[in-house]
Design brief:
Length: 273
């Protein structure tokens, strides 16, 4: 059944965050009155967990993922975090350790590669949760592929002939993401979720050609309003889909996820402003 009409999702411009990123020292975050996807899914009976990059503000507790609808959080609150040390800087010398668990600091993870660490955490959530008891919403927001370009050495080998060093590293990091997707899908199958799952894979914006990315044949890059900046790649995979193996050319906007997914979960899709 297609989701029935008449809900107009909210454009992100209404969050008041239509500027560049939230810098670590900037006192800014999602407005308090806007319900998030996990809040609505939780109301609909879901357990909600987030692993990975948040970057929607943290300057006070009310901004944290655990106050925005997630039962648990494990990941980073800022952007461009180091994949191994979890160091994050807001200019020279203004640096800190940014790996967090719920509302505290997750010390002692230095040296563990973030794509692998976050994927392991996702697996742990799948192992601990009982899908026969409650449905689960898991948001795995990997840092990859983003600067700093830090692939583990072993992933570079297949791309060793690429002349452009940034592109070579970038390709290797994409391979770690591919592997993460494989591992999570495998865990979903092994732990009894898969047949009743909807897997959504999506980028958050276009690539950055200055650091190994490419949006060819589209013009522009992340941070611009050309298609190369705002037209992202995504796919939906689910054994529940009736028309599978289909390429959709329809325009899907990021604001469609909220009503589509809350509707699918049987939740409340009305807008509270
Ligand atoms: C995927 O799983 C394999 C086998 O457990 C592990 O060696 C690898 O590090 C995992 N990769 C990621 C990206 O989590």
């Amino acid at each position: 059944e297609p989701i029935k009409c008449c809900f107009s999702p909210r454009y992100q411009i209404h969050t008041g965050l239509q500027h560049s990123i939230i810098r670590p020292s900037q006192p800014s975050c999602l407005p308090a009155h806007m319900d998030t996807l996990p809040q609505r899914l939780r109301e609909a009976g879901y357990s909600t967990h987030m692993v990975g990059k948040w970057h929607l503000g943290f300057y006070r507790k009310a901004c944290l993922p655990t106050r925005k609808g997630f039962d648990s959080f494990f990941g980073s609150l800022t952007g461009s975090v180091d994949y191994y040390s979890y160091g994050s800087c807001d200019g020279p010398g203004v640096c800190g350790y940014d790996l967090h668990e719920d509302e505290g600091v997750a010390w002692g993870q230095e040296g563990k590669y973030s794509t692998t660490l976050f994927t392991q955490r996702a697996r742990k959530i799948l192992e601990t949760h009982d899908p026969t008891e409650r449905p689960l919403f898991l948001l795995l927001s990997l840092q990859a592929v983003h600067t700093p370009l830090q692939p583990p050495k072993s992933y570079i080998y297949p791309y060793r002939d690429m002349a452009n060093v940034a592109r070579r590293k970038y390709a290797a990091m994409v391979s770690t993401v591919d592997e993460a997707v494989r591992n999570v899908t495998y865990a979903l199958r092994k732990l009894g979720y898969y047949r009743n799952s909807v897997i959504i894979y999506s980028t958050d914006n276009g690539a950055q050609p200055f650091t190994g990315g490419s949006n060819w044949p589209l013009r522009g890059r992340k941070g611009t309003y050309w298609e190369g900046g705002v037209r992202g790649v995504a796919f939906v995979h689910s054994p529940l889909l009736r028309r599978r193996r289909r390429v959709s050319k329809a325009l899907l906007h990021i604001s469609d996820w909220f009503p589509t997914l809350v509707g699918l979960a049987g939740g409340n899709i009305s807008q509270v402003s």
